[in-house]
Amino acid sequence: MEPKPERQARVVFTPSGRRGEFPLGTPLLEAAWRIGVDVASICGGRGLCGRCRVVCSAGDFPKHGIVSSPEHLSPAGAVETRYGERGQPLSAGHRLSCQATIQGDLVIDVPPESQVHRQLVRKAADSRPIRLDPVVRLYLVDVPAADLGSGSDLTRLLDALQSQWNLRPAFPAALLPDLQGLLRTGGWSVTVAVHQDADILAVWPGFKEAIYGVAVDVGSTTIAAHLCDLGSGDVLSSNGMMNPQIRFGEDLMSRVSYVMMHPEGSEELTREVRRAVNELVLGTAADAGIEAQDIVSLTFVCNPIMHHLLLGISPVELGGAPFALAAEQSVHLPARDLGVEVNPGAVAYALPCIAGHVGADTAGVMLCEQPHRSDAVSLLVDIGTNAEIVLGNDARLLACSSPTGPAFEGAQVSAGQRAAPGAIERVRIDPVTLETRIRVIGSDLWSDEPGFGDALPAQGVTGICGSGIIEAVVEMWLAGVLTSDGVIDGDQASRTPRLVRDGRTFSFVICRPDRSGGDQVTVTQNDVRQIQLAKAALYAGIRLLMDRLEVTSVDRIRLAGAFGSHIDVRYAMALGMIPNCALDAVSAVGNAAGHGARIALLNKGSRREIESVVKGVEKVETATEPKFQQYFVDAMAIPHGPDDMARRATLFPGRVTRVAGTVTERPSRARGRRSKPRTAPPRASKSR
Description:
By secondary structure, the chain is of the alpha+beta class. It is globular. The two termini are 53 Å apart.
């Protein structure tokens, strides 16, 4: 009698997104290591160090086809009990992955402190100049000493501000208990921080040299903060972290679904993001060596769902048509209301949103790139799980959101991952031999250069990120192993062992462990299809706006966001993500949303400017536009048509050939076979 097969359980690890099937009884730590999830452990799995702590997510995860529960792990045993008795007890929901064994399907979150190699948060501050005019300013005031005939200390302070600075700001009652002591400690000289020339936020004895503000970009995947000197405008410290809400869902619609299914979900997600923002702000202050009490101003840019959750507003209405915002206006409120432990008088400002899926982060990009100040037609694209698109000039601006799905961020791709050390970010394929060259995040060397193996991160090659998968798909097409329909051509298998049969389709091996260490990375037929769906949705959204603006070309293209910062614009254009444009007019603008937040932090006039501009933006809803589906299907091809083919010939001279005066792709013996494309774009959601 044949032995019964072992029962298997599916496990998904976040935030990496790596997944696998394992026999029941497998230790979580062993499962993680088998599929390259970098969970830390320095005690060899004996439950001594506590570095391998993980969190079991509970609930239904339709995206993964998993119902996860803490009951799908073995009960806590004596080793975990002894660990809690020796040191700090495990927090609720935390387990030691070296001790917990798999008993059913699971979604497991690996928190940052348990990761050997933390996610690379590529949201550094931009160095472009900003005209300095902050909303909070310092004023040194000499107050007459008290005597028998003088008025109150507060009256003399306000009179001194009037006579010395021509200001008559409001004084908050919360500062009154400390005022007399501060005046006397400072020898009747104090420094006051005044907001918008209208409200006193804080008072210090004597001369106070500097105060600070923080610009925060709250994305669904990462949160970035930039600490600035409000007097000089200098960025003193920048830092980033993963958004802890990821354990409730990698994309935002999953988080909205969580709120819909759990009555307390909205408050829970709000607590998580506020806790993370507070931790990041305090950490940034510590890195710069300043006191958190000296931070008096904060600005925020967020996508609409993160905007609502940060402000304590349920995002449920954004989960379906008509995607109604609670409010699109900018928001002013005390920073303490957001749980940020800075100066008690600190003020927070959130930039305005534009539409239900076009948020304050897009307003930040507009403030940074200024399309409304030029007669040139500008295309701004912030690429995430949804792509926010702005098109126009000083005469007219339009905006929309297009559901690109998470493939550009490495999700839904077999070996995909977010940008982190060990991820392939550059790919080249020799058109004759079909041998590959790769470059990996964490190393500056290409794989055919001496010392490549030694220069790799300790874990070797772990997967492929968005920029890498885009280059891989374009290179496969240029090398003749991918048809314009997006079919991996099995007839080319005689040219290389890298083309391998994968069921009814073929896959292409990008790298093998014997060369790179780490994992084998393969591009499957489904991977290509996911990239086709994503780029077609992006291009269809752009075409809709071009139709509405009645233009057939654009003068400049700016790609924003962490993903846009690291994509090679030649490959973006060759794939058909963006329309044809002069290559020198296409550029990545880095964390433009974060830079917009810094502009709003350091220049009060910019707030009025963006509030006015946003009111005039025309919103286009892709979900209700009949032409969107047509453009989406047309854009599935690689490239879209003869004009696009001609453009690619100029991008990659010598690799796209001319036949009888017509630009064509390199011959392939599978020209007659078509793969019926899926005719619906990826599910609408947003992540950055």
